[in-house]
Amino acid sequence: MYGVRRVKLPNQLLDNIGTTIFTIMSALAVEHGAINLGQGFPDTDGPADVIEAAAAALRDGRNQYPPLTGVAELREAVAAANRRFYGIEADPAREVVVTSGATEAITASLLALLDPGDEVVLIEPLYDTYLPVVQLVGATARLVRLNPPDWALPRAELAAAFGPKTKLLLLNSPMNPTGKVFTREELGFIADLLVKHDCYAVCDEVYEHLVFDGLQHIPLMSLPGLRERCVRIGSAGKTFSLTGWKIGYVTAPARLAGVIARAHQNLTFTTPPNLQRAVAVGLAKDDAYFASLASDLAAKRDRLSEGLRRIGFGVLPSHGSYFVTADFAPLGFNGDDADFCRHITEHAKVAAIPVSAFYPGEAPRHYARFAFCKREAVLDEAVERLAAHFAARRAAE
Ligand code: PMP
Ligand code: GLN
């Protein structure tokens, strides 16, 4: 037998990035019997008709490889949803690619657009898969930071991040973890930069239907002149509260969609056909479904935010996504956000995500991200546990 060779190291970037914070905090929550307000997933099932459609689609004999870019039903449903919600026209045969989750869609899009040496503008705080993929391709990230409490776009800094080597901007709106929904004015400013510097945008819009307070999600792709520059990414996981399904969909100009399909062909090749067909049923649901998805979540956001405020957290506004960011500095905790999230998981039995995990470098260290996509009784119980824990700590001081 050959011994294990230890001379040559595996890929150094992947070897060193460690396990994602979402997995770490979920494991810690299980270990301590904590309510998991960390990793973002709903604790109720998605719509019964969509699940029924998946079950039926498993039994009707179409279980072999589907077409590379996705089953026709889903590509047509994605095109129809683009028209219905945003007035975007897309050819389902040439401009839609179905992937195994938005995660794959993001990776495939970056692989498809970037060459080594290209520059990519990323906005901090950022979702944890963006930077490693940019680096794996050999591209260089230019980071621009939004600052709490209002997460406004620093326009001069964003403009300064663009240069002759910039290939693309990665934009996440509605944004994880901030709950920021980019305004039409901000998107217009970004659009002008993209045109001026002849760049693309990869738009992570997985929370497109989780927008509150009468605001509207505006795809960058829908702005004048941006149709041919944007890759728009959605996720059935978020739109149908079925995060384990991992069905993502890309809408892009045909030239780019073709190259994204080449990336997809080398990552997963295809995505389970039965779930794709069920998601097509979901995308055709009536407007009432999408309206109540958002209004139910807005009520949960209010419930959790009010509860956290009563305990003494400084809760930042969140206008979209599954998440609120809470400042724990007013509670007088002695430690950083990683310490805090570990502490509340172990001692209050409520898990959250340290916001510094969304910054590759130096970061604010007094914010925790709480997911509110849970049943009301679960949110109430989490608030009660935190309240009791911090009351006991204060009493012991
Ligand atoms: N982008 C963002 C901003 C997310 O929060 C998530 C959460 N899962 C994803 C992408 C990945 O989506 P999916 O589960 O469809 O891969
Ligand atoms: N997007 C989810 C979140 O931000 C987690 C996805 C994951 O665990 N990779 O919580």
Quickly describe the structure:
This protein has 397 residues and is α/β, with parallel strands linked by helices. 43% of the residues lie in helices and 14% in strands. The strands form three sheets. A seven-stranded mixed sheet has the order 2-8-7-6-5-3-4, sandwiched between helices. A four-stranded antiparallel sheet has the order 9-10-13-12.
Q: Please count the helical segments.
A: 14
Under the CATH scheme, which architecture of the largest domain would be assigned? 3-Layer(aba) Sandwich
CATH superfamily of the largest domain: Type I PLP-dependent aspartate aminotransferase-like (Major domain)
Low-confidence sequence ranges = none
How many separate domains? 2
* Strand order, sheet with most strands: 2-8-7-6-5-3-4
From the spread of the alpha carbons, the general shape counts as globular
Rg measurement, Å: 21 Å
The amount of beta strand, in percent, is: 5-15%
- Mind summarizing the main beta sheet? 7 strands, mixed
User: Which H/E pattern describes the elements?
Assistant: HHEHHEHEHEHEHEEHEHHHEEHEEEH
What is the highest CATH level, the class of the largest domain? Answer: Alpha Beta
**How many E strands?**
13
Return the structural class.
alpha/beta
The end-to-end span amounts to 62 Å
EC number: 2.6.1.-
Family: Belongs to the class-I pyridoxal-phosphate-dependent aminotransferase family.
Enzyme class: transferase
Organism: Acidiphilium cryptum (strain JF-5)
